[in-house]
C-alpha cells in the first residue's frame, strides 16, 4: 500500500543502519545482489527485508518522516510498538518478534527505527483467499485464543501504554474519538455527516463506557494481515503500534458482529472463549461495540487523507461502512435507552466474552 508516511531510505543509509545494529562485518558487500527488498503490505511504516552478510534475514522498520503529519493517535507509534512487544513477550506465550536493535537518535535518518528477525511464514491475509474454510476457521480460532491471552495483561490506567493514563475508560475513549474527529476537521475530511452530530451521538451513548472498570492491554490491530502462519499454527504476530490499555471488546476481531463487510467473527469468537459463538453480548456490550466500530470506521475514512492515497477506493469503501455503522444507532436514537444495564430477555443467556474466560458485561 502506497502512503506518504512510508519513510524510504537510500541504500547508503540502510547499510549504515545495518552496521550500527549488527556490526560492520554484517553489512552486505558491493557484490551482494538483492540484499534488500521493501515489504509492501504495510499501511503506515516502511519495512525492509534485509539479508545480512552471514545469510540471516532481518526486518527493518522505520517510522514516518518527521515532516509528515500523522493522526493524533499515531504519534509515537514506534515507541508504542516497542513497549507492546516487551509486554506481550513478558506476560504471554503469544509469538511476537524480538527486537534486535532500536535507535531513536535521529542520527542516521529523521525518524526512529528498529530491527527484528524475519518470520519465515505466510501472511494470513495473503493466503486467506486460497484456504479451505476449515483451515481458515482454525486459524481464526487461533487468533481469537491469542487475542484473549493478550487481553489478560492488566494496566494501571486507561490509555497509552507509556501513559499518561486515565482512571476512567469513558473519559479516555471519548477523548480518543474526539481526537480522531478533530483530525478530520483539521484536514476538512468529508464524512457525509456533520461532525457535531457525531459528537452528540457519542455523548448520548457514552454511559455504557462506565461499565468498563479495569484497563486491559488491547492489541487493536490484530487483523489477518498482521498474522504470520506456518504449518497450521501462528508463527508470529506483527505490527503492535496501535496498542493501548482499554476495553478488550474494542478489538478488531469483534467488528464483524456489527458490520458483515468486515467478515465473519464466528471462529474468532469461538477461539476467544465465547461459550456458543452466537455473537450475543450484554446490551451494554452491544452498545459499546457500536461505538468502537464507529471509532474504527472514522479512522479508516479520515486516514486516507493523511496517507494522501492516490485513488478513492479506500475512502469510498470506508464511507460506505460509516453509513452502515451510523444506521446501527437508529433504534437507540428513536427513543430507547442507549445503554441498558440488564441483558435483553430471550438473548442467548446475555453472555459475553471476558478475557479471563468467564462471562461478563463486555
Automatic annotation (TrEMBL):
Keywords of the record, alphabetical order, are:
Kinase, Transferase
Q: Name one GO molecular function term.
A: kinase activity
Q: Which organism does this record belong to?
A: Actinoplanes derwentensis
Lineage of source species: Bacteria, Bacillati, Actinomycetota, Actinomycetes, Micromonosporales
Pfam families in the record, alphabetically? APH
Looking at the record, the residues that make up the Aminoglycoside phosphotransferase domain are 36-260
Q: Please report the name of this protein according to its UniProt entry.
A: Predicted kinase, aminoglycoside phosphotransferase (APT) family
